[in-house]
Amino acid sequence: MEYLGRRGLDGVVLTRRCNFSWYTGGAHNHVAEACDVGVSSLVVTRERAVVVANNIEATRLAGEDLPAEIAVIEYPYYDGRRRLAAFAEATGAGRWAADAALEGLELEQTDEEFDRLRWQLTAPEIERYRGLCRDVAECVEAVARRAVPGMTEAAIAGGLSAELRGRRIIPWVLLVGCDGRIALHRHPLPTDKPLRKLAMLVTTAERGGMLAAVTRLAAFGGISGALGDRHRAVTVVDAALIGATSPGTTLGEIFAAAQQAYARAGFPDEWRRHHQGGSIGYLPREVKAAPGCPVKVLADQAFAWNPSIAGTKSEDTILCTQSGPEVLTHTGRWPSIEASWQGRSFPRPDILAV
């Protein structure tokens, strides 16, 4: 409500998936998964919140997904005039802003200040998020343990998708790379290539609107010395990123710590070959860190750092708190390396030797 006052608005109309799920505590307004904007809109004023939805979506939203205090204004999907009348009923007169363009409506656009409202998680959100992060990590680790040489990347990806879906988790990003493709491609989309000696499983997956990111690697028939050295180096970079993530620190300062760690490990240019991650929550990354980025870290904000060195990667989802970072995707059932940076140590995921 403070945002409405600062902007002089009577209300906002939220149709982006991230904002709809955030405000409603996890409801979904999408049908197609590969979209940023849903098909129903949440109308929020100082006094109330209502959803404007067509008759196709209204029954599910009202009967299964929305909190009881949020009513639904329904219109026939085929009647454009009644759609506009439903929005008029929900908004009335006044000054309004929307987070996405809506056909037939001329509204101001919400700004970056509104996006920041999602970043700092409340206590109930943190509890939901801990459960999601634990489940995503368990799914990735279970599928990695079940992989065997000869399985294709596509088959491994299918197993991971099924494991996630079984817990009502939707994979937004699902990457599987095997052997030489891991070093060649930072984003190895699954192919029919069979696994021989090394597999990397990556996902960013959503439940209740919130997303968690995890990467794990498994080696079959031993880990070469060169790969082991690279993985130890990337975990040190990860430790530098995690250790630098504290309230008030800028993303540019955290990025600089990663650059320093890459250089000290003997890989000064690897940061140029893939982004290092950033804040996460209701989007796969809210803000990606970059050199000089002035955006400051908040307490109770989630981050997913993902440093990589050709052939390996380290990635978990963490929560920045006043007392230090909490690794939310640590299950305690995966081999780990104690990685240290500037006097602080963090257990980071090792490569599983099968």
Protein model, in words:
By secondary structure, this protein is α+β, with helices and mostly antiparallel strands. The protein folds into 2 domains: 2-118, Creatine Amidinohydrolase, Chain A, domain 1 (3-Layer(aba) Sandwich); 123-353, Creatine Amidinohydrolase. Helix content is 33%, strand content 28%. It has 10 helices and 19 strands. It has helices at 2-7, 17-24, 55-65, 80-91, 112-115, 123-146, 153-165, 180-184, 225-244, 251-265, and strands spanning 11-16, 37-45, 49-54, 71-75, 96-98, 108-109, 170-178, 198-207, 210-219, 277-280, 287-288, 301-305, 308-309, 312-313, 316-321, 324-327, 336-341, 344-349, 352-353. Helix 6 (123-146) runs antiparallel to helix 7 (153-165) and helix 9 packs antiparallel against helix 10. The longest helix is centred in the middle third of the chain and has 24 residues, at 123-146. The protein is globular, with a radius of gyration of 22 Å. The termini are far apart.
